[in-house]
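Quick one:
INPUT:
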């Protein structure tokens, strides 16, 4: 099963690059940039990764990101993720980054994007990638507009716009204006919704922000009409099982609604969110949810096909990846 899942060609659509900062690289960057960090060892860092909720995680995650300063740092971060993604069968990744986490500390958005681009280009023969610029929803809408404007010179590197950070109390409608401007600039809209926030935030993300995909969407099940709408309108959910478990969005992985939503006809995908913090990259997420919900091999193939279908790839590349999946199933004799 493990070999099958790691080799299965797939796309990853919900991955925060800042959430791939492994403790080893955190120490290396702290040393390189002569910064103090509040941990004595890699083991101590890992021991701190126990979270009661989303905010407890975010506090540690934003603090860790402070070691990222130079173009080389951002290139090294991206290169490390892409190596792991390729090892997990990822052929295409649409990667979130949080520019405000860096610009608020005085790091230029160009430094961030140029660093990423270097690593993305170096890995391009093995994995296609694109960036999704995320607005931090705990900051005011005007800050989102400002970072969008600062990013416009790098539009060629960006394909989407997203919304993340603390969800409860920060509803999508607060960000109508920056989304309008981002879409006008040609970015495809997605948003985190229904992770800790209510099903109504998923509806608002669809109706006010016009999102093409919903990131997480766990709370959709509270609203049967919304589940029917997601299925009928073929709006994908980018779900992240290990994240939901670690942040106590679900009491137990066995209680996760991923299979129930698949059975209701929703285009569900499996992703890793912040793998350095949640105990596994994308293949580990497939394996964990397969075990918890007793998913069949056909379910896993469906999830991989959904990841391709839900991506922003052009139709010809989607068809090529579907073909790769078919060939994998035949040639691998699974
Ligand atoms: N930023 C990084 N990971 C996140 C998550 N799971 N939810 C909201 N914002 C995030
Ligand atoms: Zn996320």
């Amino acid at each position: 099963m493990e070999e099958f899942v790691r080799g299965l060609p797939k796309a990853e659509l919900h991955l925060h690059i800042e959430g791939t900062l492994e403790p080893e690289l955190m120490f290396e960057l702290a040393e390189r940039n002569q910064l103090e960090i509040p941990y004595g060892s890699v083991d101590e860092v890992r021991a701190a990764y126990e979270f009661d909720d989303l905010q407890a995680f975010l506090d540690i995650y934003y603090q860790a990101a402070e070691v990222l300063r130079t173009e080389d740092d951002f290139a090294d971060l991206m290169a490390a993720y892409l190596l792991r993604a390729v090892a997990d069968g990822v052929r295409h990744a649409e990667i979130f980054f949080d520019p405000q986490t860096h610009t608020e500390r005085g790091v230029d958005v160009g430094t961030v994007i140029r660093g990423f681009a270097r690593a993305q280009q170096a890995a391009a023969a093995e994995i296609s990638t694109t960036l999704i610029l995320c607005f931090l929803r705990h900051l005011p809408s005007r800050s989102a507009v400002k970072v969008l404007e600062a990013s416009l010179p790098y539009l060629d590197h960006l394909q989407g716009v997203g919304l993340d950070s603390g969800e409860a109390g920060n509803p999508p409608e607060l960000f109508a204006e920056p989304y309008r401007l981002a879409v006008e600039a040609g970015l495809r809209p997605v948003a985190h919704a229904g992770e800790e926030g209510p099903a109504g935030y998923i509806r608002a993300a669809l109706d006010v922000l016009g999102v093409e995909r919903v990131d997480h969407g766990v709370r959709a099940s509270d609203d049967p009409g919304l589940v029917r709408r997601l299925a009928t309108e073929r709006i994908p959910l980018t779900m992240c099982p290990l994240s939901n478990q670690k942040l106590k969005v679900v009491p137990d992985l066995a209680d996760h609604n991923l299979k129930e939503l698949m059975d209701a006809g929703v285009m569900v995908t499996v992703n890793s969110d912040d793998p350095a913090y949640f105990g596994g990259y994308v293949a580990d997420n497939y394996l964990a949810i397969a075990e918890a919900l007793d998913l069949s091999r056909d379910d896993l193939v469906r999830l991989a096909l959904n990841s391709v279908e839900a991506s922003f790839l052009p139709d010809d590349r989607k068809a090529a990846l579907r073909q790769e999946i078919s060939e994998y199933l035949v040639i691998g004799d699974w």
